[in-house]
Design a protein that fits this description.
The chain has helices at about 55-80, 85-95, 135-150, 165-180, 195-205, 215-225, 230-240, 260-270, 300-310, 320-325, 330-335, 350-355, 370-375; strands spanning about 5-15, 15-20, 25-30, 40-45, 45-50, 100-110, 155-160, 185-190, 205-210, 245-250, 250, 275, 280, 315-320, 340-345. It is an alpha/beta fold and about 375 residues long. Strand 6 (about 100-110), helix 3 (about 135-150) and strand 7 form a beta-alpha-beta unit. It binds S-adenosyl-L-homocysteine and iron/sulfur cluster.
Length: about 375
């Protein structure tokens, strides 16, 4: 549940509160605030991230009321009489998750990486990658701007696997962000030790974005040299046990991937206790070993979103930036109409965006974030 609108507490049972949004009730976990009935809060990913004064909440809700019901009406119209795979998936999305949509901001704070993944432009061996690291101050200020000025309620901190950011630096970043603004903090740092992840949880991070990339162990070992699939899956499971919300998924269109592979990847994503599906199309990067492999088609990607929605009706499914790269004008919209219900907007400072080149011509790179929010 990620409406970026205030909700009113109508029931409290220990740490679980029931929150009402224009008559709809959702549950959320409260770990950070001393709440009572009729208080107003913001929640993200099922976690209370901010308490807000009643007069402020009522004024915001007054503005939202009309828009909320209009959006609901439009959403319902789009889901009537489904005919195609996408329309069916979209109708199921509406039936199970209504018109809620999660919007996350992503801060890509370093493109240094110690790994050599065959698909990725940030791989260690790519000497053409113009490397950068954002300072702790820059990262925190970027997040504060995204939350306090642009109203993001959930932020993903993403980087290559860059050990320059040791435990102390990472804890300091998370602690400072939590002190200065109310947001759900998701980490996308790759494989770090359980000890590191525990420290970051204690500092206030609550979600991790970590794809397993492919559930085929042989392919995994080939395209992620020095790594094995089991370690990745075990890490995801242990992070879930630690209390993190997990966003995971795989790459669509990797070499030799069959339809059956895609179905079993969907199955694994759903059964890992995933809070959000993050499934993206593979797009070849010219300075990687997979440079000559074809890109995933947009249809295959949309089919995969639709099938995920039909198989796991209540899930949150991300329409990724890579999907938008396949169709810059309408990719996000097509993803949402095929059953996705979540978006990621790049809030990295403009001067770094082009350098974070996982794959070429990324959608949104160097676009003004305010314009992006408006569209
Ligand atoms: N280093 C971290 C996070 C950054 S990479 C990690 O690997 O988890 C984030 C995601 O980018 C990866 O999970 C991968 O699925 C995706 N990615 C990398 N190269 C890509 C490419 N060529 N096409 C599409 N997605 C890519
Ligand atoms: Fe590094 Fe992540 Fe790219 Fe692999 S996918 S090379 S871990 S940034």
């Amino acid at each position: 549940m990620c409406y970026a609108i205030p909700g009113k507490i109508v029931e409290i049972k220990d740490k679980i509160v029931t929150v009402e949004y224009f008559g709809e009730k959702k549950k959320a976990k409260n770990e950070f605030y001393d709440l009572k009935l009729d208080d107003y809060i913001y929640a993200q990913g099922g976690i209370v991230i901010q308490q807000i004064p009643s007069d402020e909440a009522e004024s915001i809700l007054g503005t939202w009321r009309e828009i909320f019901f209009k959006l609901k009406e439009t959403d319902l119209r789009l889901t009537r009489e489904p005919k195609t795979l996408y329309q069916t998936a979209n109708a199921i999305r509406h039936q199970h998750t209504d018109n809620s949509c999660c919007i996350h901001g992503i801060v890509e704070f370093s493109n240094y990486c110690r790994n050599d993944c065959h698909y990725c432009g940030l791989r260690l061996s790519n000497k053409n990658c113009d490397r950068y690291r954002m300072s702790i101050y820059e990262i925190v200020e970027t997040c504060v701007y995204a939350v306090n000025k642009l109203n993001f309620k959930a932020l993903v901190l993403q980087s290559g696997e860059d050990l320059w950011y040791d435990d102390d630096k990472l804890v300091s970043i998370v602690t400072k962000i939590r002190e200065k603004c109310a947001t759900l903090i998701a980490l996308s740092l790759g494989e770090r030790s359980l000890e590191t992840y525990q420290k970051l949880y204690n500092a206030g991070a609550r979600a991790v974005l970590l794809r397993f990339e492919t559930n085929n162990p042989k392919l995994y070992e080939k395209i992620r040299p020095g790594h094995i699939l089991k370690d990745r899956i075990d890490l995801i499971k242990k992070l879930t046990e630690m209390g993190y919300l997990i966003m995971t998924g795989f790459l669509v269109g990797l070499p030799d991937q069959t339809e059956q592979d895609i179905l079993s990847n969907i199955e694994l994503t759903g059964t890992l206790g995933t809070d959000m599906f993050s499934i993206g199309p593979f797009i070849p990067h010219p300075y990687t070993p997979l440079k000559d492999s074809p890109s995933s088609s947009i249809d295959l990607m949309l089919d995969t979103i639709a099938r995920s929605r039909i198989r796991f009706p209540e899930s949150k499914i991300l329409a990724t930036t890579a999907l938008e790269t396949l169709d810059t004008k309408n990719g996000a919209k097509r993803g949402l109409l095929a059953g996705a219900n979540s978006l990621m907007i790049n809030v990295t400072p403009k001067k770094y965006q082009k350098k974070y080149e996982l794959y070429p011509n990324r959608a949104g790179a160097e676009e003004d974030v305010k314009e992006r929010i408006d569209t």
